C-alpha cells in the first residue's frame, strides 16, 4: 500500500514533565511530598513547580541554560526535577560528597547560570565558587539558597532564597514548549573515580522511557509510598524523581540517610518502596535497638551497585525488606539491568534464592542491547 | 551551555518487535503459547516468527506491503503480529464478524498482497475474493490457509499453508531494519457502524508506547498467564499481542469464546489476566453448571466498551473475576482511559465500588490529552 499515512508530523514529544501534569489532574488531592511536618498534594506540587519555573524565566534563564543544585533529598530537590526543565533549562544535580574543587570543575564545565545551594552546603559551595572565579577565571553564577522548609534557619548566601522564588512565581505559568524530545533535560557527572567527572546528558525522551522501564522492571504499582534514601543527584534518583509522579505516589523526603530516619519514616508513613546502595542495607542492619521499628508490610528495596553478598540479603529480608538487585551506570540513565524475579525461584532453598537475587540479569525494556563483559553498547543513546 | 551533546543521531527505534527478541533471550524456556495440546516456549516462538518472516520475504513481500489475515485467536494470529512486521510489512487483522462484502472492501482499500485465512473462514473469504475481483476489478491476492494446529483438517484453498511456510523458512532470519519508528506496523479498520470501515494505522513507536502504557495502567506484573478472550483483530488485542512478550508471559489461545473454553482454560492453566467486552462477562455468568469451574485465584479482567452495569460487576466479582474498566477506540490504539483503582475506594460500600469501577477516568501514561466530551484530541498521533 503506497498511500499509508505517516504519523509523527504533529507528534507529542515524550517527556517526564507530562507525569506531573497528569498527576495534578488525576491525583490532585493525593499526597505528593512528605518532609518532616510538611505535606503537599500533587495539585500543590504542580503549582509550586509552575511558580518556580516562571521565577527562573524572570531570572533570565533561557532554553538549554544549565541550573546546578547542591542539596540533599529535600522537597526543593524533587521540585527542581520538574521546574527547571519546565523553564526550558537543564538540571545539573551535583553529588554533595564531592570536594569543593570537583564542584568547581562541574560548575565550570556545565557553565551553570544559577547555582541552588542547600543551607547545609554553603561552606563547600563558597569554596567551590572561589576556585571557579580564581583558578578558572569564570564569573560567579547567580546563587539561590535553599533554606530548610520545615525548620527555617535564616542562613543566607546572597540575596535569593528558594521559597521566595516559589512565592513570587506565577502559578498559571505555561511551560516552555518542548519542540524536540531529544532536547536535554538533565546533565549529570560521573563520580570521577578514574579521572575528572564526566558529563552525561539525558534527553526528555530518554528520561521518559527509562522512567517507565524502571517502574515496569521493578513492578511498582500505583500509589507507592517512596522513601528517598537514594540521593536524587545519583542519576536523578534512578528516574524515580519523575517516576513517583507517574505512579501517583508519595515522595517521603529525608535530609539524612540514618537508621533512625529510615525506620521512623517507614513506620510513620507506611513506606512501600525505596532504592539504596548496598551500604544503606548495612546502615539498616546496624541500627541500634531504640532506632528500630517493627516493619509490618515488606518494603520493596531496589539495590544498585555491586551485588550484595548473600548473607546480607538473607538478614535484610528477615527484618522486612524485600530486595531486588539492579545494575547500571550514569551513562545508561541509571539501572539498566534488573534482576526480574521468576516465580519458580520461590521454591528454591533460601541460599540459592539469595545467590539469584545478587545477580542482575535482565536488560530493562527500553535498553537496546547490552554486553555484560564489555559494556560496549550500554552507553548508547538507546532511548 | 552551548555545547551540550544532542542524542538521537544513532537512535534505536521504538518497536514492539524488541519485546520478542528480549523474550527469546531472557525468558527462552518459559511457555509463550498454549493452544489445546500445543505448547511453545519463547525461543520457539521467536524461531517460528523468524521462519515465517523469511518465507514472507521469499513470497516477494517488501517494506510497507500489507498482509491481511482473517482468523480467530489461534497461535498463527499471534505469531503474525511479530512475523509480518519482521518482514517489513504491515499487518491487517480483519474482524471475522464482518460480511464478505466488508471483507472485500478492506482487501481492496488495504491493497493486501497476501491474505491469510483460517480454515473456518474459507467460505467467507472465497466470497470476499469474488467480490474483490468482480465488483472492484482487483487482482486476487496470494492466499495462505491456516489449518488448525492442534487437529489439522486438511482443508485447503490454493496451494499455500501456514505451517508449511513456517517449516520452509529460515530460523536465522535477521529482521528487516526499522529505520524509522514512525513506520506503520499494523492497519486496522473500525467496525463501520456509521459508515464504511475506516482505516487506522499504528506506527512501531505508537504500538511500543501503548503496549507499555497498558501494562502499566493495568498493573500487569511479570509472568502473566493471559487468556485470549478478546479478539486479536480488535485493536491488535488492545496491544497485548505484543504485551505478553514484554512481560515474559504465556498466551492461552482459544478458538471460541465460550463459557466452557473460558472456564476450562482458566482452571487448567491458572490464567491470571484476560480482556473482554462486556458481553463476555454475560457469557461467563450464564455458564451451565457442567461448564463452570471453581476459580481459586482471582482473574484480572480488563473490560472495554460501554461501562458494565453495577449489578453485573458485583456478580462477576463474586465468581472470581476482578474487573478493571477501560475505554478507548481503534483510533487511539485501543484503550486510552483506564479506571485506575484507588486504595481508599476499598473502604467504600460495595455498590459505590461498583459505580466507581464502571467509570474509566484516567488517560494512560502515553496519551497526550483527552477531552471526554468531544474526543477532539483522542485521535491524535499522541505516541
3D architecture notes:
The structure is a homodimer of 383-residue chains. Chain A is an alpha/beta fold and 383 residues long. Helix content of chain A is 34%, strand content 19%. In chain A, the strands form 3 sheets. A 9-stranded mixed β-sheet of chain A has the order 2-1-11-10-12-13-14-15-16, sandwiched between helices. In chain A, strands 4-3-5-6-7 form a 5-stranded parallel β-sheet. In chain A, strand 1 and strand 2 form a beta hairpin. At the A-B interface, helix 1, helix 7 and strand 16 of A face helix 1, helix 7 and strand 16 of B.
Helix-and-strand structural type of chain A: alpha/beta
In spatial order, strands of the major sheet of chain A run 2-1-11-10-12-13-14-15-16
Distance between the termini of chain A: 30 Å
What portion of residues of chain A belong to β-strands? 15-25%
Fold topology:
The structure is a homodimer of 383-residue chains.
Chain A (H helix, E strand, L loop, with lengths): L16 H10 L4 E5 L2 E4 H17 L7 E5 L4 H12 L3 E4 L6 H11 L3 E5 L3 H13 L7 E5 L13 E2 H7 L15 E6 L9 E5 H15 L6 E3 L7 H4 L1 H7 L3 E3 L6 H11 L3 E4 L1 H8 L13 E5 L6 H9 L2 E9 L4 E5 L11 H8 L4 E2 L20
Parallel strand pairs in A: 1-11, 3-4, 3-5, 5-6, 6-7, 10-11, 10-12, 12-13, 13-14
Antiparallel strand pairs in A: 1-2, 8-9, 14-15, 15-16
Output the keywords.
homodimer; Rossmann fold; five-stranded parallel sheet; 13 helices; globular
